[in-house]
């Protein structure tokens, strides 16, 4: 039985495919860029967002800031998923107030 809605925001189609497959027990929706991710979050109000940091256009930090500034989406937990692993990226991710998992789903 599927439960809970997870929104995956990532510009890499392979990463999305791996995450959707790994989360087969959950309902998942996907977005391939930050703008689409914000729209889908507002429309579906997921229980959790998995958010890539490095995306063209609007990066994950900007997406997170938009979601946290919106009363409708501010309480949705966000987990950053990224291959970035330097200290700057960790500090920046925590500064926007979210749990950060720095990994590459392909590894």
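^ structure tokens above, recovered residues below v
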């Amino acid at each position: 039985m599927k439960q809970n809605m997870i929104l995956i925001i990532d510009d890499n189609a392979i990463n999305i495919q791996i995450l959707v497959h790994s989360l087969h027990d959950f309902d998942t929706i996907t977005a391939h860029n930050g703008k689409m991710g914000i729209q889908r979050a507002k429309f579906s109000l997921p229980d959790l967002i998995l958010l890539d940091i490095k995306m063209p256009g609007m990066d994950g930090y900007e997406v997170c800031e938009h979601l946290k500034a919106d009363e409708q989406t501010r309480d949705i937990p966000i987990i950053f998923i990224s291959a970035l692993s330097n200290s700057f990226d960790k500090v920046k991710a925590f500064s926007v107030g979210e749990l950060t998992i720095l990994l590459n789903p392909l590894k």
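Residues 34-44 form the longest helix (11 residues).
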